[in-house]
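COURSE: Structural Biology Practicum
ASSIGNMENT: Worksheet 4, Part C
STUDENT ID: 0417
INSTRUCTIONS: Below are two proteins. For each, the amino acid sequence is given first, followed by its structure token string. Answer the questions at the end about the second protein only.

PROTEIN I
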Amino acid sequence: MGPIGVRLDPEDEYMHELGPEPNFNESMYFNAYDPDSNLGGFFRLGNRANEGSGEMTMCLYLPDGRVAFMFRRPHVTTNDAFDAAGMRFEVVEPFVELRVSYEGTAVLLDDPLQMADPRQAFMANPHTECAVDLAYRGCSAMFGGEPDQPLERPGEEFARGHYEQLGRATGTVQVGVDRWELHGFGLRDHSWGPRYWQAPWYYRWLTGNVGEDFGFMGSRIARRDGPGTRGGFVWDGDTMHVCRDFRIRSTWEGDAQYHRDIEAELVTDHRTWVVRGSVIGLIPLRNRRTDPEGTELVTRISEGLTRWTLDDGRVGFGLSEYLDQIVDGSPVGLAE
């Protein structure tokens, strides 16, 4: 196998042809945090048209520590747009500006860890109206695309094409009678291809921004029977430094073993950046699927709003997303 090339064109900002795979997924994701208002969140739409459904997630980390959250599985039969369950993503100019909007309801969680039992959490907590209108403008070069050779083994596909970009988010957020102006930074991604959330054994995905001119992404994807992958990037306001290695150590809290503190090293050919993270708000999400043998597979995706400190003392914010398969009641990736 020769060197792997990666293709990324402005047309990739739009919808891709629906593939024949039963689990074909096309999704976009956006996160942002405003340290002045202490308001952050993430937004995701996934089209799974061959399954006749989609996935909509809206999560806001509110300044008082509460979380406003909503998840829906809308009826989706085409891959024509990201527009479902009150959420819409619009490409204004490829690689330059996109818009995110949401109008609907949200459940208000004083204790976001209640979402470990989503049915009970939705029943036991109040619901309120919610509206989001944000513009995302790119701050970094693009990272990723669609490889010209498959990188995933059959049955372990998670994204045929995938790219990311750091950006600035501006707009308004309203939850009930409270309204905020948001002026922050974050990261967005776009992926397409067959996906099951049970394909990785576990993964760690860290995103962070220190203002407009510095940010990073670190990715560790573990296989059940092999080394998996490590990588990411560091953006210094001028150059995209691609990581050839990514090392991460986590500390865990409570009987459910949620991540709380992180130390990570982003390694390029020329230097290593060290970042230390402290989770300031966490919500656990769950995905369940029954395999062909009738066994229920449970995946936990812990979404941690995280304060990052760089090795030079600078401070930033972002998300730490930890996906683990749950076996015998425990996440499988505790060693990392």
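PROTEIN II
(use this one for the questions)
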Amino acid sequence: MILVTGGAGFIGANFILDWMTQNNETVVNLDKLTYAGNLASLASLETDARHIFVHGDIGDRALLKSLLTKHRPRAILNFAAESHVDRSIHGPEDFIQTNVVGTFHLLEEVRSYWNGLNATDQADFRFLHVSTDEVYGSLGSSDPAFTEMTAYAPNSPYSASKAASDHMVRAYHHTYGLPVLTTNCSNNYGAYQFPEKLIPLVLMNCMAGKPLPIYGDGSNVRDWLFVGDHCSAIRAVLKAGRVGETYNVGGNNEKTNLQVVHTLCDILDELQPKKHGSYSDQIIFVTDRPGHDRRYAINAQKILNELGWKPAETFETGIRKTVTWYLQHQEWVAQVASGEYRDWLKKHYTDKNYTERTA
């Protein structure tokens, strides 16, 4: 049995869905179900006895203790996090509470649980912490890609909170011997992603005939990683990663935000053309957000050399699969395009000359 935290979020849900197709091992899924947690993403597992969902917070130590005592997991995978930069700028406290305090409480209960295991189970146990490349800061256009040895230099409340959680995980290994693993990934994309992130936001607005807001001049560069590839990397690290080590996970796909948006528009022009013009006609540029990092890039040579992992998808194949999925799952899209998401959209884009009007 494994325990997954944040398993109703974008990456966590994809990981569980992939895991269930390849393993017969039970998954206990602990998720707080904040705005980005969506059980509809796991609807296919509703009658699967191997998936045990628990509604709760990683900061609830009594709940954690009871789950660990009852289910006796051999591994814990920590996906639980507040993860959006814009939200962290407007409300950093939630990020500190979940990403820093929550991770601390989780580590404390896991340490107590691990100390109570017999020697064999202690040796086999793993705590895998899923993090981000944003902890490394920003790169210039000619700078080498981030490696596992790159110094941390977070530039937003979100990335600072993730950096703090990474350091806590490292400290619990070096101080207490807890067998931890950390992964730092580049920008994920794929099915079930909440539409505050660039790719699903653009797809939703394209199909609704709304403007496609791009920060600044659209030249910010990210390395794009298909979520299925990220899930396979996590499985590889969990299976054979060296205890105490960090592994960077990237897609080898550096693209500017403007390139990504034009690619999405081109695919939609092909698969679901408009009556008149191109979806790219809906592009608008909005005031850049504070502290917007210019470039991220991941050097994933370590995970390739040690574990033989590399991404199976190119950006071209992965993004086409993603667009196709969103076109085929309009009910899921409609379900998330309401309520708190609309409040977020209004808050972040109304003041930047973005409106809900039809383009």
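ANSWER KEY EXCERPT:
Q1: The longest helix spans residues 92-115.
Q2: Confidence is low (pLDDT under 50) at residues 351-359.
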